[in-house]
Amino acid sequence: MASPHDSTRAGKVFEHSILTTDVARALRSSLAMAGAWSLCLITGNPWAVIVAAPAAQNVAMLDVRGDYRARAAILLVLIAVLGCSAWAGAVAGNHLITAVLGIGVLAVLAGCWRYLSGDYGPNFALASGLFFLLAMSEPGDWWHAWNLMAAACLGGLGGMLVQLAGWFVRPQHAVRHAVAETWIAASDLVTAMRSVTDEGQPNPAQISEKEGVLRTTADRTLRVIATTMGKRSAALAAHLDDTCQLATRLATRTSALHTAMEALQSRAGFETVRPSFDSALRSLASAMASTALTVITHRQEQLMALDVRIRRAGDLLHVLDTRLETLDPQDDEVIQARQMLAMVAELLPTVQMTLRETVDHGTPQTGFALRLPDLSGISMRSLGAWVNPPAQFDWTLVRYTLRVAAVLMLAVAIHKWLHIPRGHWIAFTALVVLQPDYGATRQKMGQRLFGTLAGSTVGSLLLWLKMPVAAFILCAAIMAFCFAYFVRRRYGLAVFFVTLMIVLMTESMMPVHLDFTLERLLATLAGGLLSLTAALLLWPKWERSQAPQYVAAALRANRSYLETVVETFGKGERFTGDAVLAKRAVERANSQAVASLQRLISEPSRQRGDVEHIATLTTYNQRLTRAITVLGQHLNHRIGNALDIPASYVTPITDMMDVMAEGLESGAPTATASRQTTPPPKNLSLDEAVVYSQLGTVATEIDAIALAMGKNGTTT
User: Fold this and answer.
1) Is residue 382 part of a domain?
2) How far is CA 429 from CA 79, 441, 505, in A?
3) How far is it, in rounded angstroms, from Cα 620 to Cα 704?
4) CATH number of the domain encompassing residue 211
5) What range does the domain containing 532 cover?
6) Are residues 458 and 476 located together in one domain of the fold?
7) How far apart are the C-alpha atoms of 203 and 211, rounded to whole Å?
8) 605 — alpha (psi -120 to 50), left (phi > 0) or beta?
9) By CB atoms within 10 Å of each CB, which of 252, 303, 450, 531 scores lowest?
10) Distance (Å, rounded) from C-alpha 531 to C-alpha 449?
């Protein structure tokens, strides 16, 4: 008999397989690759394995979103790209000049893919480069080129069939999984707020990272809903839009509660509150994950499980409120924390009601579906929704594209001029390793070298085993599964598995000995060193000149956020509309500032400048955002009760933020003296006093930023 612990573990595995795409992607990758390989051997075309199997794998493992017709269009475009790349590589590979020019053109096209689609462009770019180089390594006449193109396209169609089979086995409305991803991102953010993990270990601080992930996921989901759902599905579209925004609303209120609780941590007696707070956060995160599962499956049994988790979360929040009351019920910060807690608790019944409607909107599917859910009619808008170039042209991408083109052309020239065996791996390693910034390039190189060395060594040992072809295919399928599963989790481990897969695949074509391992390892090392050199010398854009600009933009976004919240207080409205839009804008700006800081840290020490200064300003700016969010949450219990905050109280604060942003942009010193000297109005009610107290906290956070700038100065 299975123990309760085993049942719990099995339940978690089931939820993980439903809520994440890792397992499904790995299964598709494994089945498609093994199927294409087997068919090539059965039909007597072993030469086609080298392009057909990778094509099937690349198409099958692509995570596509949106309307089913749009998904099919994306996959067909990818198949066409793979086929054309294989044809071009086979034709261009006959001569050095055509090979060099061909890879240069392909690099420019890869940059176009990255520009046109942030979601799928990088996959298209890497896959097209791989197939060009694979075909270039085996050049031939026109007939050979057409054969390789046909093999790549047929393999890709096989991978597409694997994708289609999954759609019919577990059909779902195209945007349900996207909405569920938003709830998962919200759950991950709440989990990051906990002080300890489930195992009792200190929880690493990842709140900033998870906030950025939630903002990106929610924006993508709302865009999918807007472009996918047609007029016939207007009611369902509105419901799913509300469900997505409910996730961000609950996460925002929980974040405000966490910020308010931070102010109490130094109080005597808080240690009696901390365990209750951690339990409440854990229960909320669990309820959010259960919500995501219900959105996808829309089954009554999942709804019942969600009801239990929400009731438990509500009970634990009530316990936490009781603990907070023992601190000092008249203290402004305690009152604020209890108000934030109450706003989280009052949203839980809304989650239950919304998810009941979700279950009503969908009929659970069992068995094999005869048709896919029809969400909308065919329209260019839905089919082309995956093409979403950025609003502003990015010159960094232009420099990166030119850098990639130069490196790939040089790598192919070296390979062809010196006739290096398997030298095409120099170019492919450079294509994979070379990133827009130096730090990411260095990190990719280290991971790829480790994975290639370990994978090639183990693969060479496997070659001494005299296994039948079926055993090779089975082992390669397992490697394909592991590669697709870990590619977004641990890149170095994924490279290890894909190297093993390539070694086994090559063994089916020709005898492979120790020279294969050495040649691929040396080619990988050469490609990595070439990439690092290019990142250092070819049109670098060091982050130290950009980081202050990102912090300044985030500071200006915070200024707009604060002004919008104050204006909303004067209207007596909820935290909706313009306030939510301002919050989204500042979250995006903060995410860009954090990403800039991470790039800065990864750059050479002589190019970093005062990285500690930028890190301090970025962190302080995030704390300012959270303080303004706490202030904004007070709007939710003041509906119809306008509070006019005098301009003389707010204007000095916002003016100071403008001065600091200008100082960051110009590098000029910034005054550190506080400009907020106006006292709060007299005869305030208890609730109004709490609002002004939080405004004082906002002003304090701004003073901290100004003080940090005054001590260190700006760096450009």
Assistant:
1) no
2) 22, 11, 18
3) 7
4) 1.20.58
5) 4-170+392-537
6) yes
7) 16
8) alpha
9) 450
10) 13
Q: Indicate if 511 and 553 belong to the same structural domain.
A: no
pLDDT tens-digit readout, 83-130: 999 999 999 988 999 999 999 999 999 888 888 887 788 888 888 988
* Cβ atoms < 10 Å from Cβ of 237: 20
Q: How many whole angstroms separate alpha carbon 163 and alpha carbon 172?
A: 13
On whether both 89 and 161 belong to a single domain, the answer is: yes
Cα dist from 255 to 281, 322, 549, whole Å:
10, 20, 26
Burial, 164: exposed, middle or buried (Cβ in 10 Å; 0-12, 13-18, 19+)?
Answer: middle
How many Å apart are CA 241 and CA 218, to the nearest integer?
10
pTM, rounded to two decimals: 0.75
Distance CA 712, CA 220 (A): 38
d(CA 716, CA 706): 17
Tens-digit pLDDT profile for residues 47-89: 888 889 999 999 998 888 766 777 888 899 999 999 999 999 9
Pinpoint the alpha helices (H) of 572-604.
578-602
DSSP 666: H
DSSP labels for 240-279? HHHHHHHHHHHHHHHHHHHHHHHTTTTSTTGGGTHHHHHH
Q: Which residues contact 340 (CB under 8 A, 6 or more apart)?
A: 253, 256, 257, 260, 630, 633
